[in-house]
Amino acid sequence: MRKLVAASIGNAIEWYDWTIYSAFSVYFASRFFPGELALVNTLATFALAFFFRPLGGWLLGRFADLHGRKTSMLLTIALMAGGSLLIGVLPTFDLIGWAAPALLVLARIGQGLSLGGEVSNASAYLAEIAPASRRGRYSAFFYISTGTALLIASLLGFLLTSVLSEQQLTDFGWRIPFVIGGVLGLLGLWLRRSLEETEQFADNQDKARALKNPLWTTLRRHPKAVGQLIGFSMLSTLCYYTFFSALTPFAVQTRGADATDVFLALSIATALFIALQYPMGALSDRFGRKPQLLAWSAATAVLIVPLSALVRPGLGALLVVFCIGVGLYTAMTSIAPAIMSELFPTELRGLGIGAWYNLTVAVFGGTAPLVIQGLAAFDASTAFFWYIAVSAVVAFLVIRTLPETKGTELR
Q1: How far apart are CA 42 and CA 20, in angstroms?
Q2: pLDDT per position as a tens digit, 276-316
Q3: Residues with Cβ within 8 Å of residue 156, at least 6 apart in sequence
Q4: Cβ contact 125:7 at 8 Å
Q5: Rounded to whole angstroms, how far apart are CA atoms 109 and 15?
Q6: Which CA distances in Å does 262 have to 249, 296, 315?
Q7: pLDDT tens-digit profile of 106-136?
Q8: The pTM is what?
Q9: Helices marked H in 24-134 — which ranges?
């Protein structure tokens, strides 16, 4: 249990640091980029960081396969917290000109590298310390911690938008969550120092060292696993970055929703998201991973476009959108570490998940806020939700090819 808690709390801090950028982007965009395209440029920086996630997943995933999950997870949290602290204290464009956005981009690149390694290594760690019959339950703690981080970020947004004016948020309020994130990183480092390496890693370290061209090996020996990972991760990442990132600025700027209502609705839905993780993980241990994933992808395909029509002013409508969207998504998130870890053998697990999952996230998740804002500018925002619906159909077909893995031993 100590290992489970230490890994989960460190993961929560990582995701808090990553999430606050998009949550508060509407307030600090004009501080770093001049002109009418300030928010677009800020969201482009958000997207750019995602394209360093595959590199981080590859480098830190391979590092973890060779040197251990613990050491790699210490590196990831140091990178993430350092990036948040840098953003929190950066001078603005008015003070240092183009050096301000350049340093902002540099901080986000470091965070992109960090999260690329964090997802694969924390997922592998949770799966490897879990008994085979309880891997779904252990996996649930990844998004319990992630959801807790999102809830803290959302509640902080609700609090700050309630007590500070929009001008105060733009002037200095946006810095507060970033500085908090940097300080929390020290707590994460202290907690992760107590972690022990997994037996799975120790037993397979020599196999990892013997591999030549490991990234190519994932394609040569496990092409089906790579395709399956990309197929269901495409929908997963679109769901995540739609509900937890893209909808916040979209609802406020495009649909005219009150920012406080949006943050409150997201906070309530995130609490539901956290509460459902463990029960859904337990369901997968009892009834299987595959039925759960099929239900999630099918329901998303049918409901996402009708839900998009409810993104409008009014707390009630926003609650329906966020609660149904993230509630369905828990069928996937509760077991994501288990599913991904079960696709690859231990000597390739960190690299296999890190490279291919993060590449999918970069292409589909990192661009989500930018795509939805771009389409909204042309009064075509509905097309974005049809894009998610089509992705859900693709994921459903891919999931049908997965073997059932509940109760099986990791390779």
Answers
A1: 13
A2: 999 999 999 999 999 999 999 999 999 999 999 999 999 99
A3: 20, 176, 177, 180
A4: yes
A5: 15
A6: 9, 24, 7
A7: 999 999 899 888 888 888 888 888 888 999 9
A8: 0.83
A9: 25-32, 38-50, 53-67, 69-89, 93-96, 99-129
